[in-house]
Amino acid sequence: TNSEVYAGLKLATLLWLLAFLPSLIMALTCFTRIAVVLSLTRQALGTAQVPPSQVLLGLALFLTFSIMSPIFTQIYNEAAVPYMEDQITNEQALDKAFAPLRTFMLQHTREQDLELFIEVTKTEIPDDVENLGPAVVVPAFLISELNSAFQIGFLIFLPFLILDMIISSVLTSMSMITLPPTVISLPIKLMLFVVIDGWNLIIGNLIKSYTV
């Protein structure tokens, strides 16, 4: 019957969304910036694989859910619930689900990145940027997020780089050339990072960069 066919299509759509869920989270949310900044922080500390990548990705995922929870709630109320109750079609549900995500992405996307992908996709410039499609908004948002993440990463790297240079100069002046500077700098960097409550500062400012 038609109802059974429609139910099958609805189930297939939901399974398709679940299959692409990891990619959608990385591309349409703040996950990319958070994951890159946390990874750069680990490199700046020079602790190799500590914390493990799984821990950093898990932390980035839960921070993403915390920041995006109002948007996810809006998507659930305006798209998921009406779709499950057969009040809207597939296309309407996708449009209603993408609308709040597009608004979020545009708030954190640079104009030059939007202009780049408008030119690449040969899209006509709409009267309202809220009418731009995913082919323009999503890649522009990702580039802007990577740019922001690298800017934050540079600011994190800078004090640790200066500390490494100071320790290296001191060891050279003491003729301790054979002693790797990292042997001395690593515990000092860890101590300073703990003293200033580094994780709290970094994560707190990451969250504020989206909520302010």
SSE layout and pairing:
Layout: H1 2-19, H2 21-28, H3 31-45, H4 53-84, H5 90-107, H6 111-120, H7 134-173, H8 181-195, H9 198-211
Tell me about the biggest sheet? none
How many beta-strand elements? 0
Distance between the termini: 51 Å
List low-pLDDT spans.
none
Overall radius of gyration: 23 Å
**Strand share of the residues?**
under 5%
Helix share bin: over 70%
Mean pLDDT: 83
Number of alpha- plus pi-helical segments: 9
Query: Which structural class fits the helix and strand makeup?
Result: mainly alpha
Order of helices and strands: HHHHHHHHH
Shape: elongated
In short:
With about 210 residues, the chain is mainly alpha-helical. The protein contains nine helices and no strands.
Describe the overall structure.
This protein is an all-alpha fold and 212 residues long. The chain contains nine helices and no strands. The protein has helices at residues 2-19, 21-28, 31-45, 53-84, 90-107, 111-120, 134-173, 181-195, 198-211. Helix 3 runs parallel beside helix 7. The mean pLDDT is 83.
What tags apply to this protein structure?
212 residues; mainly alpha; 9 helices; 80% helix; elongated
